[in-house]
From TrEMBL:
Name the record gives this protein: Sialate:H+ symport family MFS transporter
Gene3D superfamilies for this protein: MFS general substrate transporter like domains (1.20.1250.20)
Membrane topology: Multi-pass membrane protein
Transmembrane segments: 20-42, 54-74, 86-104, 110-130, 142-166, 172-190, 223-241, 261-286, 298-321, 381-404
Signal peptide positions on this chain: none
Cellular compartment(s): Cell membrane
Keywords annotated in UniProt: Membrane, Transmembrane, Transmembrane helix
Major facilitator superfamily (MFS) profile domain boundaries: 19-409
Principal location listed in the UniProt entry: membrane
Pfam families the record matches: MFS_1
Organism: Gryllotalpicola kribbensis
Family annotation (InterPro entries): MFS, MFS_dom, MFS_trans_sf, Sugar_transporter_CS
CDD domains for the chain: MFS_SV2_like (cd17316)
């Protein structure tokens, strides 16, 4: 039994609860706004007279800009602390998301989604860093899974909002973006009550004593090699995740190219259910990573994804499509449950604002063309095969990259000696 496993469970104090709740809600609202596009891009395309292939690039540009946000806000957070950059970031992306409701044409919406990607890129890295620095280290896996579940919870909320606002009330897609500002403001209020990260404050003192710069820390050869490795791992992860999510609502509603031909309401209810599966998977496998380690649970989730692909992609009834998608979201997002903890534990203290977020978002850049590729393949080989090839390849890549990597489960962030020991065994 490891030392971390022997540590008693600690209840979160008010500062830790506020930090976690704000990060969870911020990430949830990022996903809410992102998946609104996934759910309504066919409707927006019809309004603007734009093809589905071109509309798919609204998600691509958001993903492409996320590394810029992760870099800008991350570097700022490593210099001045986590709190102020996070507050500025949530104000920025809340306003941009709200303005999407008033876009007069595709070009303006494209620019707004570009800007939103910058804000979305800043949110995950800083929120995850602040949370992982504050929660008890022997329970990081649990809070990591719960935090990552916020992404699926945001997707679930977007699906419910679509059902209520568009399907039931018959209102325009614009209302969905207008309403998104309310929970974002709640996140801002919570975040304003959070104290600065004690780990960051201690690290700044150590950097001054040793006269070490952030640049020097990053350009250590082992840290750079680990950075490249984590970017590749995140590319595989994002390809696996987006491959199972982004095109699926369109596949469920499509009547050609092997689509399931379901009604919009039925397809959206399936999205609600499979996101419940994703939330449960994140929490379950994230918690298990505190016992089994980050690597074992990641490999388990990705490996269980493979045999579920036929049920997920080739079923012919709503029931089995719902079952297959819920199970595959349990496994793929379950594998994600350990990632906030894993990336932050593999990051040097001095660049934790920058390092996890940028590796994650650069991986997203590589995966950014997943939806356009799937959409382009669908007319030629059908939606089921387009999803099968992309998801299966990504899951295998996740398994192999994780197996050959390292982990630093429950590492003490206040012990630079322990982190230096991990740095000598990067990949």
């Amino acid at each position: 039994m490891t030392m971390a496993a022997q540590l008693p469970r600690q209840r979160l104090n008010s500062d830790q609860r506020n930090a976690f709740a704000a990060s969870l809600l911020g990430w949830m609202m990022d996903a809410f706004d992102y998946f609104l596009i996934v759910l309504v891009y066919a409707d927006i395309g019809a309004d603007f007279g734009v093809s589905l292939e071109k509309m798919a690039y609204l998600t691509t540009i958001t993903l492409l800009m996320r590394p810029i946000g992760a870099y800008l806000f991350g570097i700022w957070a490593d210099k001045v602390g986590r709190r102020i950059p996070l507050i500025v970031d949530v104000c920025f992306y809340s306003l941009v998301g709200f303005l999407c409701a008033f876009a007069p044409n595709f070009t303006v919406l494209f620019v707004l989604r570009l800007l939103y990607g910058i804000g979305m890129g800043g949110e995950w890295g800083l929120g995850a860093a602040l949370t992982m620095e504050k929660v008890p280290r022997n329970r990081r896996g649990f809070y990591s899974g719960l935090l990552q579940a916020g992404y699926s919870a945001g997707y679930l909320l977007a699906s419910l909002a679509f059902l209520l606002v568009v399907s039931a009330a018959g209102l325009s897609w614009r209302w969905l973006f207008a309403l998104s500002i309310i929970p974002a403001l709640i996140s801002l209020i919570l975040r304003s009550r959070v104290r600065e990260s004690e780990v960051w404050e201690t690290t700044q003192t150590n950097l001054k004593i040793t006269q070490t710069s952030i640049r020097t820390v990053f350009f250590n050869g082992k840290i750079v090699r680990r950075f490249i490795y984590l970017v590749l791992l995140m590319a595989a992860f994002n390809w696996m995740s987006h491959g199972t999510q982004d095109i699926y609502p369109t596949f469920l509603k499509a009547t050609d190219d092997g689509g399931a031909g379901l009604s919009p309401a039925t397809a959206t209810w399936i999205a609600v259910i499979y996101n419940v599966g994703a939330i449960v998977g994140c929490v379950v496998l994230g918690s298990l990573s505190d016992r089994w380690g980050r690597k074992a649970t990641i490999i388990l989730g990705a490996a269980l994804t493979l045999p579920l692909i036929p049920l997920f992609a080739f079923s012919s009834t709503a029931f089995w499509l719902c079952a297959g998608s819920a199970l595959i979201q349990f496994t793929t997002q379950g594998a994600w449950g350990a990632i906030p903890a894993h990336l932050n534990e593999m990051s040097p203290n001095a660049i934790r604002g920058f390092y996890p977020g940028v590796t994650y978002q650069l991986g997203n850049v590589i995966a950014a063309f997943n939806l356009p590729i799937q959409q382009a393949l669908a007319p030629h080989i059908g939606y089921p095969l387009a999803m099968t090839f992309t998801v299966a390849g990504a899951a295998v890549a996740v398994i192999l990259l994780t197996a050959f990597g390292r982990q630093a489960k429950a590492i003490d962030f206040t012990s630079e000696e322990k982190l230096a020991e991990v740095s000598t065994n990067v990949v």
